[in-house]
Amino acid sequence: MNKKLITLLALLASTALMPLMAQGIMGGHVTGNIQMDGQISHRDTTIGASEVPEKLLMNARADILYTNGDFSAGLRFEAYQHPMLGFNSQYKGQGLANYFVSYKTQDFGITAGYYYEQFGNGMVLRAYEDRYLGLDNALLGFNVYYRPWDGVTFKGLVGKQRVYWNIGEGLVRGLDAEVSLNDVVKRWSEATTRVTLGGSFVSKYEEDESIASTIPGYKLNLPKNVGAGAVRMDLAHGGFGLQAEYAMKGQDPNIMNDYIYKNGNALWVSASYSQKGLSANLQAKRVDNMGYKSVRSQTGEMLYINYIPAINKEQTYAFLTMYPYATQSTGEMGLQGDFMYKFKKETLLGGKYGTDLHINSSIITALDTTYLGGRGTNGYESSYFGTGELYYGDLTVEIAKKLSNNVKFAFTYGYVVFNPIVEGHEGDLHHNNVLVGDVTWKLNKHNVLRFEAEWMGSDSQYDKEVDDKRCGDWIMGLVEYNFAKSWFVSASDQYCYNDGVGNYYNLSVGYNKGAMRLQVGYGKQREGLLCIGGVCRQVPASNGLTFSLTHSF
Amino acid sequence: MKKLILTLAAIVLCGSMMAQNAKLPENVTLKTLDGKTVQSSVIQNDGKPIIISFWATWCKPCNKELDAIREVYEEWQDETGVKLVAISIDDARAASRVKPWVNGHEWEYEVYLDQNQDMKRAMNVVNVPHVFLLNGEGEIVWQHTTYTEGSEEELIELVRKVAKGEPIE
Fold first, then answer.
1. Does residue A92 sit within a domain?
2. Domain total for chain A?
3. C-alpha distances in angstroms, A552 versus A88, B12, B142?
């Protein structure tokens, strides 16, 4: 379809619904949301921002949802004219990016068109989107669920995945079953222990193609079908919880594992205990050759069928995210521990309002592997409990305290050790210490000030050869002022003080009313990885004006 | 570009003309903190107002908001009968930490997991925090994104109106 036709269709579809709604013939509701982000960037050699030939870069989208009882339908219009910095240039263009109709009741549901789905923790299947990462692997096809009895759910799907403005060639089919034992076994319905079990199976079909083997003149015998399966459990007893999932994948030679024939597997376990004001959680994960895509030759972040999240905590302060970890789906092992405690009011450490303590630590390493051969072989052997080189480690200690009715204070200490091999290049480990102070001061009902100060000391110095603009010691300050109910202004500066590779200042102003938000910013953005959920996207340096408008209705 | 802006404007215009009190979606799949799959129709409050708050463990303003409401939640409930339903959009990375997180923060809210973000899409949530206020009939009468210190005081004012059956501008 050409672009004009699509635009016309989107218009027709939305306007055609309007009189019907107004007259109340169909009943039902139309809701939706829009988002527009724009950027004007200029060359700045000090931070490595290159010249952008287009005057204005803009990403825009609108979702329109029609709901009438058990029936719903949706349309999404996307436009990238031209894609913002950091978004893949293959997004350039505009059109209808997503459409579906669905009928859903308590027991049965079917969706035709584009849909998102997750089996268990997503280790064998997760079709999802993240608009800020420019990632959308929605499946186009059919998705059904059926609940024959309370506590029993079956899901089935078939489809092909979105890749930018196209559809990937690989066909994905999946089945999932989940049983809550307490609902199914009557005697256990009142039991204090709750148990849920589940299992899923996914298969990918793709035509053969010609991939050269390491033996000259021979090509690889590629499997057309690649299967993956997983079993999972969720056990809860009072404040205790235990969750686990184990996934396996058949022979799947692909570009990520350099066409080896080893089977893949992954294990994830989470144990936790909590009561009022106290919680502890320990998670362990081992991933071995679990990169699973619907097109074997696809590089980059698109067309993943499954999702293996990073096991470290998602940090929010700028310097703690300066060296973000991205999941190595080809192989990694990790542990994460999390502890939270509330010191009660009117105690020595609690003071008048109580004190919150939050400690989190994680460590991620490579697998301990023995090389067997290259392309066309089983690749390597790995010992199950052995660990390889360190990929990433961190420790954060956060203390949050209300000082008075109007002043809140949070102090964070963080330590991060980072192996650059995670980003694909050899080098020494980076060791960073980070301190953060964060104060919120409520002046009166509609006027709130927030201050943030951060420091990062690093053992890595700036190296002209590598030109990694993160290296060195940093300080940062931020002031944010919220006023008149709906407005905010903020100013911040990040500065690398021992080698001067950059001074990154930012000014922004925002307006917020109901579900509408408008923000305009001016300043410099450091090049780096933008990460959400352990999936990362490289964002180039930029210098100039940005704006963002979001609205839900 | 002009055509694009026109299209978007038309969509917004017709959308906002028709957005008269949409209801809470009924058949969206959610999970309880004990791992059970339920439909969104379980969100009920006997004809009294409901606050729906979309949040995530990594979202600082969300946590500030839910912490601030915790301090006054009992009073709110006694006065208006309101119930707060907190919907976590954490994915597999942090979903297993949501239950201990809620306990550790001493939140007395009804909490659901929306790992696949079905509810988030069905309610057109773009960013968190995003708060909805539902009247006794389950109609969405107000929504708001972002949190600044003290904005919970405006929220309770609206809840009081809704509890009395008064309209909100």
1. no
2. 3
3. 26, 9, 11
